[in-house]
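Weekly sync, protein design subgroup
Attendees: M.S., D.O., the rotation student, P.L. (late)

Item 1: inverse folding check
M.S. brought a backbone from last month's batch and wanted to see whether the design step gives back something sensible before we order anything. D.O. pointed out we never logged the input encoding, so this time it goes straight into the notes. Structure tokens as presented (165 positions):
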């Protein structure tokens, strides 16, 4: 019988997830999403989802702009609900500039509910700033405007709480 290790994800304010359910890509090792940023953008997607595929280049550019600007710390993580083979084919065709992970568990809908996605639809993105209690869900195809608005809202809430980001 295998032992299951439960890891606490700091970015979710104590949410628990099975370690074996999330793997770093392409390493394929058990992983947790990074918690070292003031603002986190978690994008849940799949290669078979047309809207997901179409938003990836924009999200990659947006992420690189955030990294270059040096204005606050923003981390982006993409979590694929897909097979290893599909993810491998996709990442050969489309260059992704931010870290990718692959969900490998048996119940992606239950897993997504932990991120506030109660309907289980994708693409689904959550923007959060745990230090100041900000969390915003974006369902459907992302745009740069939607991301910038969520980022501005996070910064505003943090400023109101006198937390510098």
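Designed sequence read out in the meeting:
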């Amino acid at each position: 019988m295998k032992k299951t290790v439960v890891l606490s994800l700091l970015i979710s304010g104590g949410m628990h997830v099975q370690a074996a359910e999330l793997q770093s890509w392409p390493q394929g090792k058990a992983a947790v999403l990074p918690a070292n940023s003031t603002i986190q953008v978690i994008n849940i997607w799949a290669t078979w989802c047309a809207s997901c595929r179409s938003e990836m280049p924009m999200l990659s550019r947006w992420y690189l702009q955030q990294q270059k600007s040096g204005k606050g710390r923003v981390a982006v993580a993409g979590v694929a609900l897909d097979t290893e083979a599909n993810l491998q084919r996709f990442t050969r065709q489309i260059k992704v500039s931010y870290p990718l992970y692959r969900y490998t568990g048996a119940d992606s809908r239950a897993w997504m509910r932990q991120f506030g996605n109660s309907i289980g639809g994708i693409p689904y993105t959550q923007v959060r700033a745990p230090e100041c209690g900000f969390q915003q869900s974006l369902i459907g195809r992302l745009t740069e405007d939607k991301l910038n608005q969520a980022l501005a809202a996070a910064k505003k809430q943090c400023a109101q709480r006198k937390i510098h980001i």
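Discussion: Residues 6-146 form a domain with the Glutaredoxin fold (CATH 3.40.30.10). Residues 1-19 have pLDDT under 50 and may be disordered.
Action: P.L. to compare against the previous round before Friday.
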